[in-house]
Amino acid sequence: MSITHPTGTSSIESVIDELRSRKPEVAERLCREHLQSSPTSIEHLRFLGHALMQQRRFGEAESEFRNALGLAPDFAPLMEDLGSALAQQRKFDDAISQFEQAVAHDAGLINAHKKLGQSLAALGRGDEADDAFRIFFDKNPDVGAVAIGADHMRAGRMETAIDSAQQALKDNPENVDAMRFLASIYLKQKEKLGNAEALLQRATELAPDFAGAWVDLGRVNVERANRMAAIEAFGKATELEPRNGFAWEQLATVTAGAGYPEKAAEAFRRAIEVGPDIPGFHMGYGHVMKTLGDQAESLRAYREAVRLKPSFGEVYWSMANLKVFKFEDEEIDVMEEQLENTELKKDTEVHFRFALGKAYEDREDYDKAWNYYHSGNQLKRPLVSYDPAENSLQQEQIRAHFTPEFLAENSSHGYPDEGPIFIVGLGRSGSTLIEQILASHSQVEGTEELSVLPRLTDSMARYRRDDQRFPKILDTMRAIDWRALGLEYLGGAKRYRVTDKPIFTDKLPNNFPFIGLLHLILPNAKIINARRHPLDTLLGNYKQLFGRGQTLTYDIFELADYYREYCLTMDHWNDVLPGKVLDVHYEETVTDLEGQVARILDHCDLPFEDQCLRFYETKRAVKTASAEQVRQPIFTGGMGKWRKYEKHLDEWKNELGEIIDGLPKIVKNAGL
Questions:
Q1: What are phi and psi of 528, to 5 degrees?
Q2: 522 conformational bin, left if phi > 0, alpha if psi -120 to 50, beta if neither
Q3: pLDDT digits (tens, 9 = 90+) for 217-227
Q4: pTM (two decimals)
Q5: Are residues 556 and 643 in the same domain?
Q6: Which of 120, 270, 456, 528 would bridge 129 by S-S if both were Cys, CB 3.0 to 4.6 A apart?
Q7: Does residue 413 belong to any structural domain of this protein?
Q8: How many domains does the chain have?
Q9: Does residue 321 form part of some domain?
Q10: What is the CA angle 446-489-430, rounded to 5?
């Protein structure tokens, strides 16, 4: 059904409204309808060009601007418009001619000077570009001040850049560009994020259609772990600029992290619609579809990403990380060819080596698989920061501090909530299986690996002047503080919850050093320690390229040392808090599922439910490397897999021999 208006004036007002609302398709239709009866309407021809520009149909826009200029050859704004359409098509010589004509006819066209400078710079005509930019800055001092600050930032003079932005705001307190620029510096430095948020909030209040400020506000909120606020900000940016693929991608990423994978998938589809040739959009979509359990669609997205960018090593590792997927011969050939590229970035090479390790493991060529895994770890270790001596010292301090006397003195003060179930241990020890079993219970919500507890311990000492840190800082706690910390944890965890079920899981493995703290702040919380044969655990970690964190896994000796410290700390908790932690061995779970499910539910004070035995039927988002495996019935093929690599594991066998000797028989003999 067509939309008609009684006069050209009312029609053009409607077109402008639609363009401002970022509805270029509607604006195009209105213009074309009016031009059917008034083909010489310069305004409608011009705004038809703008509607086409918003849709990135630059060639068609160029044609409409030329038609309008044929009717009004001296109309300078049309010359600027035509120059913009030409520049978008990288026809910079022609664009420069149009911009020069535009400013010659009307020197007051401020943005035409900027566009002229950009086009000249694109052709390497630096001196002429500087002259054009200088005129632009002189005519627009607010923008000029920000541009000067940006030059300082690019040169690494961050303090000078900050001073420039602050001076711009003193000169004009409503300079929204300066607000955004100053916030961007704080965001880049990951400092004064509260100030950055306040600046961007003010900028969006003064200029509610400033899409760039909304995007940056979303990024700041991501850094501050305010996921819902970030979703709102990115959502506003996509409303203002529906064809902003970056905004859609950011919205998708934070929505996925907040536990809404279906909405994230739709946002990634919108990003891909806008930028079908951007490999990262397809990779992100593949990650979300993996979380949703749609392996076929995930794989299709990953393969599209590597089709667009064959050197995209991260995507090849993402395919390998599907676990139940096997590479085609051609894909292996491509990865090995990429390793011949002497200009390949180290991080990209790491991804290819881990992916090739998985490829050759699937072909049962374990020596070649080990060589790729081992060389990948050796390349990765210098790229991460981890201090094994510092870790050992921290573990020793925790064990020394949480004595029976300290625990007894501070007990009974925490918040008596029955909700949390903590699943701790080391990665690749079966924690996702335990979580999936629990999440299959009608009273339990499975969340993810929450970072709430580590942030809580970090925040305790943030504003102290005496430099006291966890656990020593606990000596200053009052009775009321333990309860407050329990409530603070629950408040932080609530951000990640999407149901009203009374119980929820937190399966961050690295929470094991905080079990004593958990006992004091949340005395009724349940704790499960996921265990597996040490050599399977260490091998699983050594073969896993983690997206973030877990920097302890990329060196054979450091990994073994970490495992020893973990065992010492868990032994300590079992001594000072007997019965607090339930050890669940992976090998016992897969060989006696019903018995172990009963143990787990009994420890958590939950009634037995048959659905927990059919955990693989439970539909939920799973973000860990074991996502595909826990969607299948129990199988024992993963037990004792270390034996395939045994001749490469002498260091671990020697370092952990005493721990291995003390294992239950079914664990020790797994894989025989």
A1: -125, 135
A2: beta
A3: 999 999 987 88
A4: 0.73
A5: yes
A6: 120
A7: no
A8: 2
A9: yes
A10: 35
